[in-house]
């Protein structure tokens, strides 16, 4: 089984091991210098020399796997209580007027490091999603 971060060349290696496989590979993102999550599914590939090998999707960060951008705030137990008080139901807590989360940060009710962590993870998840579109 090949596993490892996205973009390290797992699928490229397989295409070399068995020419003709034609598995999809993509260049790493210029912006993030990380892989683009090209392989989406786990696949068992029969090899001409006998046996099977599994190609797997690379993960950028296990912590954000399978979390939608809109769901992230619910995973922060110290941020979650303020979310229903935001003016907009789909508030990203970045720049919206009437954001109760940003207000709570300003008032010292949410630690700035936690808010930063939320912003960074959210960016990461959105980057992964945009590579899927
Ligand atoms: N220079 C160089 N580039 C490589 C090498 N192996 C892979 N690449 C390039 O790295 C990029 C990503 O390769 P992939 O095979 O798609 O990477 P992956 O690990 O399968 O990525 P995911 O499917 O997203 O998990 C492609 O542009 C490859 O051509 C290598 O040994 N040297
Ligand atoms: Mg791949
Ligand atoms: Zn908000």
Report a brief summary of the structure:
This protein has helices spanning 10-17, 100-106, 112-132, and strands spanning 43-46, 52-55.
Features:
binds guanosine-5'-triphosphate; binds magnesium ion; binds zinc ion; mainly alpha; 2 strands; 27% helix; 133 residues
Could you please describe the fold and organization of this structure?
The longest helix is centred in the last third of the chain and has 21 residues, at 112-132. This protein has 3 helices and 2 strands. It starts with 9 loop residues before the first helix and ends with a helix. The model has no long low-confidence stretch (mean pLDDT 88). Helices cover 27% and strands 6% of the residues. The site of magnesium ion has 5 residues, from helix 1.
- Sum up the overall morphology in one term: elongated
The biggest sheet amounts to:
2 strands, antiparallel
- Beta strand %: 5-15%
For this structure, what is the CATH homologous superfamily of the largest domain? Probable gtpase engc, domain 3
Report the mean per-residue pLDDT as an integer. 88
Q: Classify the oligomer.
A: single chain
- Bound ligands, each once: guanosine-5'-triphosphate, magnesium ion, zinc ion
């Amino acid at each position: 089984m090949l596993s490892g971060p996205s973009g390290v060349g797992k699928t490229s290696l397989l295409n070399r091991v068995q020419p003709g496989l034609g598995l999809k590979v993509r260049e790493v993102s210029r912006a993030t210098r990380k892989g683009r999550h090209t392989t989406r599914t786990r696949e068992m590939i029969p090899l001409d020399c006998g046996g099977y090998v599994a190609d797997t999707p690379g993960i950028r960060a296990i912590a954000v796997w399978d979390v939608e951008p809109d769901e992230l705030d619910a995973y922060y137990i110290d941020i979650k209580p303020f979310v229903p008080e935001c003016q907009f139901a789909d508030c990203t807590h970045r720049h919206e007027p009437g954001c109760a989360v940003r207000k709570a940060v300003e008032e010292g009710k949410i630690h700035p490091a936690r808010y930063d962590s939320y912003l960074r993870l959210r960016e990461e998840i959105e980057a992964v999603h945009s590579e899927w579109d």
